[in-house]
Design brief:
Elements lengths: L6 E7 L5 H10 L3 E4 L6 H8 L8 E5 L5 H16 L4 E7 L2 H11 L11 H11 L1 H6 L2 E4 L5 H12 L9 E8 L10 E4 L20 H8 L2 H24 L3 E8 L5 H15 L3 E6 L8
Parallel strand pairs: 1-3, 1-4, 2-3, 4-5, 6-8, 6-9, 7-8
Length: about 290
């Protein structure tokens, strides 16, 4: 492969075979993903990516059947790039007719090429239109018996960079329930059962980041018992998520105001997760809301 040439993967295949899910898997692997880029823009994208200093090193392009003219134009552009020895990988997602019919039936959506006809007619027409692309494929994945997790594992197996360990990035956020629960969190823990430093006069103006608040909470058996079981639970979950092929995990820790208990538990959790060698980010969303 030429220097300054990014890795470019085209993801296509039959409707219902899992292209959208596959594209999200490539995004998790650090690919810059574009869905249905107009074919005439592909050479321009290649030119931009191969320029010195470009930060685009891995690109995944999702291609649907769309209109016949779209495919014809894409075939021409793709052939021109390949003739110029540009290294493009093609991942083609296939599935049996039975599996595809079942998936369209479950979603109650018509096939894009047979909106007023039986699904099987659309599948057959699509196979015919995409035959040239399947013949150029560097990788064909039959998703007939796959669920989303198995598809992810298959893509990771083929595209995870050699020498790179699959490590989850854990994003931790502390917050106060009185200011609403954050959006987009995977695991939510409510620590309002712990003794509240807000009711201790000298601790009220402090935060969960101070030694005084930490010492107060750790002096309570509820806290030490919770942390012991909490860390065991987190260790178990991390091993399962890592096996699943997950690349990020958002954990929310909430107390009443988001200043003392949730902050302390979030800080303690971050230290533990770093200790088992996962990357972390941490944010205390509401720590300054109740400053005196």
């Amino acid at each position: 492969m030429r220097s300054n040439t990014p890795r470019m993967v085209v993801i296509s295949g039959l409707s219902g075979a899992g292209k959208s899910n596959a594209l999200r898997c490539f995004e998790d692997l650090g690919f810059y993903c574009i869905d249905n880029l107009p074919p005439q823009l592909l050479p321009k994208l290649v030119e931009l990516c191969t320029q010195s200093g470009s930060e685009l090193h891995k690109i995944a392009l999702g291609i649907d059947i769309r209109e016949g003219e779209f495919l014809q134009e894409f075939e021409k552009v793709l052939n021109d790039l390949m003739k110029n020895a540009y290294p493009i990988e093609i991942t083609y997602l296939d599935a049996s007719d039975e599996a595809l019919i079942s998936r369209f039936s479950e979603t109650r959506r018509p096939h894009p090429l047979a909106k007023d006809k039986p699904v099987i007619e659309g599948i057959r027409l699509e196979r015919e239109r995409l035959k040239w692309l399947s013949e150029k494929a560097t990788l064909i994945i039959d998703t007939s018996d796959f669920n989303i997790h198995q598809l992810k594992q298959e893509i990771h197996r083929n595209f995870l960079e050699k020498g790179r360990e699959k490590k989850i990035v854990v994003n931790i956020i502390s917050f106060g329930f009185k200011y609403r629960v954050p959006y987009d969190i995977d695991l939510l823990f409510d620590v309002r059962f712990l003794p509240n430093p807000n009711f201790v006069t000298n601790l009220k103006p402090m935060t969960g980041q101070t030694k005084e608040v930490a010492d107060y909470l750790l002096s309570m058996p509820q806290t030490t018992n919770f942390l012991k079981n909490f860390f065991q639970f987190i260790d178990f979950l991390m091993s399962q998520y890592e096996h699943e092929g997950r690349y990020y995990l958002n954990i929310g820790i909430g107390c009443t105001g988001g200043r003392h208990r949730s902050v302390f538990i979030a800080e303690t959790l971050e230290k533990h997760i770093k200790g088992i060698e996962f990357d972390t980010t941490i944010r205390h969303r509401d720590i300054e809301r109740e400053k005196l």
